[in-house]
Amino acid sequence: MTLLDTHIGFVEALRSAGLSVSLAEGLDAISALEKVSWHDRETVRAAYAATLVKRHPQRVTFDAVFDIYYPRLIGSGVAGEDAGPAPDGPLDTGPELARFREALAEALASGDEQALQDLAVEAVARFGAMPGRGPGLSSWSAYTSLQRVSPAELMDRLVQGLLAAGLDDERAERTAGRRIGDFTRLVEGDARRRIAEEKGPEHVVDVTVRPTIDRLDFTAARRSDLEDMRREIYPLARRLAARLTKEQHAMRRGPLDVRRTVRASIATGGVPLTTHHRPRRPHRTDLVVLCDVSGSVANFAQFTLLLVYALREAFSGVRAFTFVDDVVEVSDTFRPGADVVEVMESLSASISHAALWVRTNYGRALTRFAEEHADAIGPRSSLLVLGDARSNYSDLALPVLTDLAGRARHSWWLNPEHPRHWGTGDSAAEQYGQVVPMVECRNLAQLGEFVHQIV
Amino acid sequence: MTTTWFESADDAAARLRAAGYLTDDATALTAYLAGALEKPLLVEGPAGVGKTELAKAVARAAGAELVRLQCYEGLDEARALYEWNYKKQLLRIQASGGEDTWSETHDDIFTEEFLLTRPLLSAIRRDEPTVLLVDEVDKTDVEVEGLLLEVLSDFQVTIPELGTVTATRRPFVVLTSNASRELSEAVKRRCLFLHLDYPDAERERAIVTSQVPGLDDKVAAQLVDVVVRLRELELKKAPSIAESVDWARTLIALQIGDLDEATVARTLGVVLKHASDQQRAMKELKLPR
Questions:
Q1: Which of residues 83-122 of B touch A (CB under 8 A)?
Q2: Which band of pLDDT confidence, cut at 50, 70 and 90, is reported for residue A336?
Q3: How many angstroms separate the Cα of B40 from the Cα of each of A344, B37, B49, B81?
């Protein structure tokens, strides 16, 4: 493959991974590469990044694709080839495995990045090879390597070592966790690199590249993703708030302010060159949020609540209720300036109050809401229901929802599932959707867009 | 006429360091590329990581003058590009007392004398090396972006009465953004992109000690250590480099030679600006009240 082929393939892969790379930007990248020296891989990466990646969240995707198209080394590299004569016996069990784990423990304790990288390469080469039946069928497995080496078992030893080095409990544990996580990622990266080498990069890109954090489905998120998402909430709220004020200012031109216009016209000899207008009064709504907090959709409900409360100023009042099969008001949890972590904890605590029989029952929850908190909904308020509308085949209480929606000024239902799943199984999305407009809301980007619309 | 801003990425790093700005490799390389390819540089990142400072440092390092356009909501052509000085034009017409013909007056009042140049136009017209800083470009309205397009891609400005003004010497353009709004694809396409983030502990220590002379090495290390831990917490606003530098200055002013927990607790207000953030930090770092 020539250099140009690699470049074209790389740009194509970026496009299919969702980065909008234009032809002009591809040309820019080439002229940038002409200006830099190529002896350092990181230089090439930085030159590509400066010209092709124009949005920071896409950087993760870019790095993953770059590692596949411009691998760190080929095969086991120079170090792997002249490792000396092979010791007796099989390479991947017994004393060799023990020796390898010893080396790994040392590298983890010292935090030496170069050593960890080399060990990751070695781990995949030794323990992750999956010989195939014919040429081109062999493969590499990060999972097998990690199973054999099992770095997590070294955790205790690592923590002890760090404690001896003078760190306190909590930090030692965090540092150890981070280093082992880094090593796991290195092994995964190296397995990807070898597979790409064997099968061609274009086959690997599709399966390995994950969507960026704001496009990741709430229901598909891992634990670490959820933490990243939580960190995204406040920046997102700030961006939305900035956008809202700007739009409100743009729509602000109300009736002519005669006094200011005449006053300003004095500077231009009495000719009113610029007119001044009175600002319009902004319109604010009361928002009532009803969230399903049962296991399957709890994360989604929490994010939505956090976002709504972060944008509190845009509403005249927000009341929030959570339910599984009973309804609890949680508005008090969200004090102004409250701490995100505490809010999340008290929210999860409230879930136990919201469940009587621990099976989601929309009909019962809606009926209870109408009985106990009917005063929350008035002609000035908007009703927002969050949930997947999976009601375990129980009574749906459609008349109750119709009544609630009729009394509210607007009402929406946010569903974290893909529309193709609506109405399948016990999902009552279609029935509810006829009463209240149902909106698909699967990731942070869609959530931000929706919240922006209702404000 | 072209200016060679930097010889290479290493040269950029060395000269920026001499100008008091410590870069990482990617920043130095991107700054060098922006000069070599004569493309505008869009710098994005959280507040207080040195986006504006980068432009100033480039100006200092290259001995160029800095022309700054501070963007804000409602910024328009008249304040970004150029404006006709209509008061002076009115005076000119009144002073002639109706003796000139209309065409004479017309030719006369649309000349250089009555043109008020604003930052974008002055940056283009300068003959000396210039760094043009368009600060907080995300604060402007979408219309201003359209205005920037012509300036950024061709480095020229069209004034209907005078014709097109083309740059004799292309300025080094730096746009900064806090990402409060997505810029249009058209603007992004024309720029090189650089995301500045919080630096690693080592570089931050170097920055703090270089910005605050007289700071004890031990205190600097302790300070950076605390700041790094604070950034790991879930805070509304993580402390930036600017805030760690402020903190270092505070410690100098208070003549504190050892940053122990009590001192951290007392001076936490310098780095954390939300009450809930301070409480969280108190709790997580187990600080005495």
A1: 86-87, 90
A2: low
A3: 43, 9, 19, 17
DSSP type of residue A209: P
Interface residue of A56, A240, A309 to substitute, partner B, most B CBs within 10 Å: A56
pLDDT score of B67: 94
CATH topology of domain B9-77+118-195: Rossmann fold (3.40.50)
- Mean pLDDT value across residues A143-168: 79
The answer to whether the Cβ–Cβ distance between B29 and A36 falls below 8 Å is: yes
Task: Indicate the residue of B181, B192, B279 with minimum beta-carbon distance to A51.
Answer: B192
Distance separating the N- and C-terminal Cα atoms of chain A: 53
Task: With beta carbons less than 8 A apart as the criterion, state whether B248 and B215 touch.
Answer: yes
pLDDT in tens, A38-97: 888 889 999 999 999 988 888 888 988 898 888 888 777 655 544 444 445 555 667 778
Going from the C-alpha of A24 to that of each of A334, B47, B192, the distances in angstroms are 48, 30, 12
Contact status, residue B206 vs residue B242, Cβ threshold 8 Å: no
Give A 62-81 residues with CB within 8 A of chain B.
none
Are A49 and B193 an interchain contact pair (Cβ–Cβ within 8 Å)? yes
- Candidates B234, B235, B272: best to mutate against A (most CBs of A within 10 A) is B234
Of B37, B141, B189, the CB nearest to A32: B37
Q: Given the cut 0.85, state whether the ipTM is greater than it.
A: yes
Q: What is the CATH number of domain A231-251+283-454?
A: 3.40.50.410
Q: Which residues of B touch A55 (CB under 8 A)?
A: 182, 188
- Chain A residue with the nearest C-alpha to that of B275: A337
Question: Is A337 an interface residue toward B (CB < 8 Å)?
Answer: yes
Q: Is A39 touching B (CB cutoff 8 A)?
A: no
Closest CA to B90 of A204, A271, A49: A271
Nearest chain B residue to A231 by CA distance is: B234
Per-residue pLDDT, A19: 84
The pLDDT assigned to A133 comes to 65
d(CA A242, CA B177): 13
Q: Is the predicted pLDDT of residue A267 greater than 60, yes or no?
A: yes
Rounded Cα distance between B64 and A324, Å, is: 65
Indicate whether A17 pLDDT > 90. no
Q: Does A44 touch chain B (CB under 8 A)?
A: no
Angle between helices A298-310 and A223-250 (to 10 degrees): 30
Q: Is B105 exposed, middle or buried (0-12, 13-18, 19+ CB in 10 A)?
A: middle
Task: Give domain limits for chain B.
Answer: 9-77+118-195, 82-117, 201-284
Residue A210: name the closest of A1, A31, A58 by CA: A58
CA distance A415 to chain B (A): 26
Of the segments A1-5, A190-194, B175-179, which one has the largest average pLDDT value?
Answer: B175-179
pTM for this entry: 0.79
Nearest CB among B29, B141, B193 relative to A54 is that of B193
The domain locations on chain A are: 3-69, 89-198, 231-251+283-454, 253-282
Residue A84: the pLDDT is 44
